[in-house]
Task: structure prediction
Amino acid sequence: MNDEVFIYAEPLLDEAASYDTPLTIRAEEMLHELYLKRIDENDYVDKYISLLNKWMTYEDTGEDVFLEAAQFYIEHDSISDALRILRDGIEKTNGTDLKEMYEENRYRHTVSSGKYDDIKAFYDGIIQVRNADYWGIATSGGLILPCIFDEVSYENGRAIVRQGNVITAVDADNNRLALFHSEYLQDELGSVLGIGNYSQNRVAIRFEKGWILTDGEFNRASTVFDELKTFSNGYAAAKYNGKWGIVGTNGVDWLIEPTYEGVICDNLGKCYSDNAVFVLKDDGQIALLVNGTPVGETYEDAKPFQGEWAAVKKNGKWGFIDLEGNVRVQYQYNNALSFSRGLAAVQNEDGLWGYINPEGKMVIEPEFLDAGMFESSVAPVKTESGWCFLALYE
Result:
């Protein structure tokens, strides 16, 4: 059928395609051909996509329709839509070509422009950021609390902030919710020096003579620690009488008695996940404890588990282990962070950071000066212009 006849036949084909007859598919195939011929004209992209969407709902649709739709979106830079279609197609057809296309595109990403001088790790979509000498709270989309604090930490709509020796709890609009009265403890503990990270409605407050534990309203537990880190999964690393252990949220009960030289924490001060923790022994080696019991061999260094495989260092190189101590990715990197969301940041011989998948394949090339762990589909990365955010399309 020539193009002119095709154009005049479109209304008839539309009508034929609206019926449920043996010729419906043929009418749709002819419309498909017409839409492709006129794809650059008004409305024909929508008609084309609508037809493909209709075909993808058919019970006997093969992977070729999903491939065509995904390729169209990729060519038009709609990567999120392409990945969604590929996932749907894999679920429906288990097609090999769909899986290959998905793997080729699943780690495509954007990197925002540099915004911050320093940054911590994400926690529930929130991240601590620093500009000049002061800290604020942000999401990947922008600031929640401005960078005006000496220290700040945020959870569930409440932030614990320090400005000088004044510690307060504020909401997301920086309205004061509570004030910590440090003057009542000055004779016992000296001056306030800082705060830890607020997590699980617990925050550690540092004085000249030790650390105390409070909740978000600044109700205090009785124990004075040498040092106290951040709670995760009900427990935090704590130093007491010169030794480190793992303490519960009441600040009294010890999951692991304070008998170690140190506990390995991430840059938020968290150490405990999947009932596992890395501890520093008297001989300077790092041991993995799962449910309080040593597992596997010892290491030169480690990063805490984050729900997947942990980064560990041996013979000067970093690799990855599981909770049973099995090596899952061989020791080969200059530095590394533990896996989260199926990706791990690793540093190459040139000092640049990229991301590998669980097979050890570099899926995001090493081009960053520093990098953090993924939460959801976003990770902090450092470029020449500062810290910013890498966002996957899916």
Remarks:
- Residues 3-110 form a domain with the Serine Threonine Protein Phosphatase 5, Tetratricopeptide repeat fold (CATH 1.25.40).
- The chain has a mean pLDDT of 93.
